Amino acid sequence: MSDFIESAKNFLNTAVSRTSWEAQKQMRVRGKQGEIDKLLEQRQQLLNDLTVTAMNLYQQGALTDSQLSRLCASIIELDHDVKRREEQLDEVKREIYPADQYAPGQTTNYTPPLQTRGIQTPIHSLARLPQLQVLRQTISQ
């Protein structure tokens, strides 16, 4: 019985030790991830500063690197496209529902035309076409 209790104590001590170690590991992982995130934020800020500087030089005509000039021109073109799309979006948002557009219209008269002597309805006049006559003969055989 004492072996069972001793074994249970060892098991619990091991579980507590492992849990503690896992918690400490998670804290170390979060700490390192936080350090990496801060470094990436600093990098992003430097990239933003570089972009602003390059764009300012480009707009002043003082940017001499052709690759950077092309990138700046593309950025400006995208900015203009975004502005146009935002204006189009605003136009769509300002649209008003045309209630009368979907109102029921005048009911169409579906009464078939009357046939008078010597006058055939358009469907009967199709029977005079040679292809339809051949088709009729083929079907009736």
Helix content: over 70%
Unreliable parts = none
Largest sheet: none
> What is the radius of gyration?
41 Å
Integer average pLDDT: 81
Alpha-beta content class:
mainly alpha
Distance between the termini: 102 Å
Write up this protein.
The chain is an all-alpha fold and 141 residues long. It is built from four helices and no strands. It has helices at 2-59, 66-94, 122-125, 130-140. It is flat, with a radius of gyration of 41 Å. The chain starts with a helix and ends with a helix.
Brief overview:
With about 140 residues, the protein is an all-alpha fold. The chain is built from four helices and no strands. Helix 1 (about 1-60) packs across helix 2.
List strands and helices in order, with pairings.
Blueprint: H1 2-59, H2 66-94, H3 122-125, H4 130-140
Summary tags:
4 helices, 141 residues, mainly alpha
